[in-house]
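> @MW can you paste both from yesterday?
MW: sure, first one:
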Amino acid sequence: MEDLPSSATEPDGSAVVRLLSYNIRSMRDDVTALARVIRACRPDVVCVQEAPRFFRWRKAAARLARTSDLVYVAGGATASGPMILSSLRAHVEHTEDVLLPRTPGLHQRGFATAVLRFGRARLGVLSCHLSIDDQERYEQGRLLLERLSALNVPHAVAAGDLNDRPDGDTFGLLAGALQDGWATKPWGREHTTRLGDPLQRIDAVFATDGIQVLGCGVPMGLAGVSEQDLRAATDHLPVLAALRVPPA
């Protein structure tokens, strides 16, 4: 399988950034396999969903970052699950964890957000895990767009587990306002549900206009990413995107 473009800073000041979105099911599965998958994708940024949220969650997050050759940036329990990790290539300018309005009887949800700089290129990042309830999910999609705008940067990405398919209202809301990575430049495998489960694309990477999507999809068959590790790591498949971010 042909790889996506490598991380790079280009002569005009733009930056090629590799971003991975991954629901890790609270690290309840094979963490060694999980770290191998992440390392093989060589991400600059990882938008995590279902990061550990309870006892010693910070220790678990630090372990995942360390074994994946990354550093902790934001989120985790303080965002009710979404988390952001990055390589040392990223300079962290700002972070904020956001808890969303909660519907009684449903899980608390939140966003992990950060503004990262790669040389002269600045990128807003939002990691999300939206509700299983249609109405609450749609409202969270609206709040996501507001929060992305509030990062006050010219270029931003939102990535995560939407609990919605491309024909759903919330997915459509986001795809109408942002570039859907897979639809813009498909690469790899489309469907993100666990191997053997019904084929669905419920995890996605979205980018604002001005960012060039160089490729986006599930890295099935990428060198170092084995089917055995994908099955062992968690119950979702990761989404990897390569993005060219213009200079600020």
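MW: second:
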Amino acid sequence: MSSQAKKHPLLKKITKGLTVGTVITGSTFFHGPPVLALGLTKLLKQSRKVDETNIQITNSWLSVNNWLIDHVLPNTQWDISIDEDLQLSMQGRYLMTCNHQSWVDTTVNQYFGLTRMPLTRFFTKWELIFIPFVGQAFKILGFPMMKRHSKAQIAKKPELKDHDMEEARKACQQLLSQPFTLLNYLEGTRFTQEKHDQQQSPYQHLLKPKAGGLALALNILGDQIDALVDMTIVYPDGVPGYSEFWLGEVPRIAVNLRKINIPDWVLGGNYEDDAEYRERFQQWVHELWLEKDQLIESMQQKLAAPTA
């Protein structure tokens, strides 16, 4: 960076933004077409080798982002803690839950997981498939893409509910051919104080969890995963926007990972049709969310001291 940019904060900010934006855009256009091209071959024949190659290309794309974080945004301090009973492997199969506050959360997950866990997929909206390169890559890489129908639409056409469930089931089952991390943001939307107040959420730092997606994933994958992992992300200096993060304006990020023990009764239950099981499952998730709420509070208190 030029000496002139160092003297003028605005110029420095513009220079950094242009650098990051250019590298991310260039990397996306470099890595995206091969993923799409290889993905098209799967229309003719499913191939594990193609899947593995696409994951390697995707990890290369993520490594560029991580390089930017480490070398262009070096002011961000990371506080990462992993509970001792959680042993992670690049060959593992994991379900993951996480609190959701910002689009930055996904970048934090990718930054953390690139060298510790298999490629992270997450339940996403079907509408994202129309985003050039990114949306199609989600589909090719096996992200469960959901068409979220309203209650009115389902009431008019009840078969829509079963169709969504079947599509999610197929997407989850396809993951079993390889190592994977499947992420579920249980809150279903990003936390804001307004949403928290509207919900009258019983948690201090979290919105109410939506347990259905986790129940579905555990029903399909539960006896074949290595661990249910809970990630907690805290931004002690305020929840950042995406542009703030990539401009290096996030002083600190704290991440905690813990292993969640899955009770035997959880596996094999019918969340959709068994009201008793559904109530019990929701209570279990509620208790996990209470623990998570307390964890966030303790992390915030630990990090309350101002940055040196």
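> thanks! The first strand starts at residue 77 and ends at 82.
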